[in-house]
Design goal:
alpha+beta, 369 residues
């Protein structure tokens, strides 16, 4: 008979091989660096709770055929501390051999001692499972956005991602983009004109780890429901978030209004000629548009061809009219034992995704070779 139990040290090799093959779509064996990181992340997570642990599903012969990676995190809401569990890296090996293994694993996860069960990376299959188990799909938190900056370069980058030799055409895209982006050309959803953000962008400056932690805490506290990190927990997350080799170099900047007040903060990764990945945008209420303009101006100046990231309700509203495109690639979902706790999520007053999720981890965007 199949079984579900907490992750143990000896399970790591099997979990690493499943992740490499099922989620990363790689044929090569999982590198030792990945095994080490899985052990570090899921057996000793930053916000450790001894009774909230990652889970494995076992076949009848005792071998591992399923996994739910769990990251505990404490939230605060109306002065009360809530225990949460963020589920990710959800996978089942050869699910056709045991079609209900995934549902059993998800049910076991939701049945844990936490007040909130969360995810920000549910694909279509797991979203259907969450829905059947009464999870609440958070539409605006689940939207992926895309802003094209240089259309020819964007198309070349897409081609190079699908077929590596296509990267040879990328230099030829630059003069075409220069023509399309000539100063004074009318605004288009396909690209930005040269200097388009010059009058709208605010000053931005790089931040170190200590200031980054201060800014994340400060801006997160503007949400009715937000994480309650210790100094050590948040520091570890910010440090680990620096390493995402597949996404490119990290850009981590604060946004300063003309009076000298810091009104926003953003973190993205990207290299010249590439598509940048944003994992966090934060701002004071009412400054979302200015922070977005400043981030787009920064990415344009660095030669990126586009930016993509995950939505939050206030950000989605600010993006309207700024020629962002929206798609759905994965879902942010919440399951609460007390239905009253759903209110801040459905009202857009919960800080979720990015550092309040799993996007900060090296599993999304890093290499372990």
């Amino acid at each position: 008979m199949s079984d579900i139990r907490p992750l143990e040290q000896d399970d790591i090799p099997a979990v690493a091989e499943m992740l490499q093959r099922i989620l990363r779509k790689r044929r090569a064996p999982a590198p030792q660096g990945m095994r080490d990181y899985l052990r570090e992340l899921f057996l000793d997570p930053p916000c450790r709770e001894d009774d909230i642990r990652s889970l494995v599903h076992l076949r009848e012969d005792g071998t591992v055929n399923g996994f739910m990676g769990v990251l505990p995190m404490r939230f605060t809401f109306r002065g009360e501390t809530l225990r949460s569990a963020i589920g990710g890296s959800f996978m089942v090996d050869r699910h056709e051999d045991d079609p209900y293994a995934g549902a059993r694993l998800l049910r076991a996860f939701q049945s844990g001692p936490q007040d909130l069960s969360l995810t920000e990376t549910a694909n279509d299959v797991s979203t259907s499972m969450w829905r059947k188990l009464r999870g609440t799909i958070l539409t605006e938190y689940s939207l992926e956005w895309l802003r094209i900056l240089r259309p020819a370069g964007f198309m070349a980058a897409i081609a190079a991602h699908a077929f590596a030799p296509a990267a040879l055409v990328q230099p030829f895209a630059r003069p075409l983009d220069a023509l399309l982006r000539r100063r004074g050309s009318p605004p288009q959803w396909t690209h930005v004109a040269d200097g388009e953000f010059a009058q709208k962008a605010l000053v931005s400056e790089d931040t170190d780890i200590a200031e980054t932690m201060t800014l994340i805490r400060s801006f997160a506290s503007t949400f009715a429901l937000h994480p309650e990190w210790s100094h050590t927990e948040l520091e570890r997350m910010v440090v680990e978030a620096q390493r995402k080799a597949n996404y490119g170099a990290m850009v981590r900047r604060k946004v300063i209004a003309r009076g000298g007040k810091t009104v926003g903060f953003f973190v993205y990764y990207g290299n010249r000629g590439g598509i940048g990945r944003v994992i966090q945008i934060l701002s004071l209420p009412g400054h979302e548009g200015s922070v977005l303009d400043t981030m787009l101006d920064d990415a344009t100046a660095r030669g990126l061809v586009a930016l993509r990231g995950r939505g939050q309700p206030a950000l989605v509203n600010a993006m309207l009219g700024k020629r962002f495109a929206f798609v759905h690639a994965s879902s942010s979902i919440v399951h609460a034992k007390d239905k009253a706790l759903l209110e801040p999520f459905t009202a857009g007053q919960a800080f979720l995704n990015g550092f309040a999720g799993e996007s900060w981890t090296r599993l999304l965007g890093d290499r372990f070779d």
